[in-house]
UniProtKB/TrEMBL annotation:
Segments passing through the bilayer: 6-23, 140-162, 361-381, 423-449
Topology of this chain in the membrane: Multi-pass membrane protein
Highest taxon, organism lineage: Bacteria
Stretches assigned to the Peptidase M50 domain: 12-403
Pfam families per the UniProt record, alphabetical: PDZ_6, Peptidase_M50
Annotated GO CC locations: membrane
GO molecular function: metalloendopeptidase activity
Subcellular location: Membrane
Protein name from the UniProt record: PDZ domain-containing protein
Domain called PDZ: residue spans: 199-245
Main location: membrane
Obligatory cofactor(s): Zn(2+)
Family stated for the protein in its record: Belongs to the peptidase M50B family.
Amino acid sequence: MTTVYYVLGVVAFVVAILVSIGLHELGHMIPAKAFGGKVTQYFIGFGPTVWSRRRGETEYGIKAIPLGGYVKIVGMLPPGAEQLGEVSYDEHGNQVTRVRKSNTGMFTQLISDARAAEWELIGPEDSERLFYKMPWWKKVVVMAGGPSVNIAIAFFLFWGVFGTYGNPNDVGPAEGRPVLSSVSQCVIPASEQRTDCTASDPESPAAEAGLRPGDTITSFNGTAVTGWDQLRSLIRDNADGQAVIGYERDGQELSGTTSTTVELRPDSATDQTLREVGFLGVTPQTVRATGGPLYTLVQMGETAEQTVEALIYLPSRVWGVGKAILGLQERDPDSPVSIVGGGRLAGETASTDLIPQDAKIAILLLLVAGFNFFIGAFNFIPLLPLDGGHIASALWEAVRRGAARLRGRPDPGHVDAAKLLPVAYVVATAMLAMSVVLIVGDLVVPLSIYGS
């Protein structure tokens, strides 16, 4: 059954990502058509076509490599000089624009070829439906529609989890008298990354006092305990003094006597500075924070900060994955993963016996939400061929034309995005290289929910 659950987890994740990709492309296609644009293709995936069907002027289909998708909006690039005034007819006698001229220079030729591909079968009837002729704000809506859908998917998934299961990354002690979740059997120095006791480890004060998981702490050295923060302060301030602990177990009031020990421990969950404080060896039961739309937006704001940082350091972290592939270093647990790595994590989550069923569903939903949030944010980067590159071009067009009007100068016309194609090719090559490294890394040195 473990294998079955693993496969189901992988399939569920892949299907969720493919649905997200499809919705992303709908985010482009629907406003493009609403604004009168002509959309000739809507495909999920790349490579050879697996299935397609034409509805009206649009061909819908699925391709073999499920690593993205696209919609073909006619007229993304304005015509160059070689396109203007050059008209011919196809075998059916229909008037079409065709390109026959060529240019010298590598980048010039690349731009020319791109225009040729864009304009080869654009007919005069398409003149008023070309994307580049749309007002700048319509271009922004069309191009922002895709990544905005991903952000919206992430929001609703996060909200669904936070509003029901709770946020596993926002956990705190339960209110009221602290109920013990665990009791350390020995004292392990904070600097040592282990949880198992050895023969040389001294017995913990909590174990010496006879405390067990599930006990409710009621007093500490005669002071009534009302909450975990209060108890934590009493323990830390007690240094190596005697500790008389009152607790409740199965409805009975009991007490135990021990002496806390002085240990180097982190100052708090957010401040990992080690300080010498009193140590008992207990942890309280915790609860996950829950919330609605406003809480979700606040949490997504924090996620956005982390995502921006991840995007800034993405090349260096991918480089680290490459070094891990070659065996030069261990893979960083915080390194990025591809859809292959996401599928593996989903499979492990679904098949493990270490995670409760409700937690598995929450984790899988959060995994899909996280991928959607990252995809949305990544696509807003203002570089072609990403959606953000087209948005930046449209905004620059608005600024340039607005400035010309204010200064009483002639309209400079549409921004020629084709001139930025050399940048697009470099960015696309870098994206492809990073994708290959991450996919290979997820196969050779995969991350795991059990630790790397």
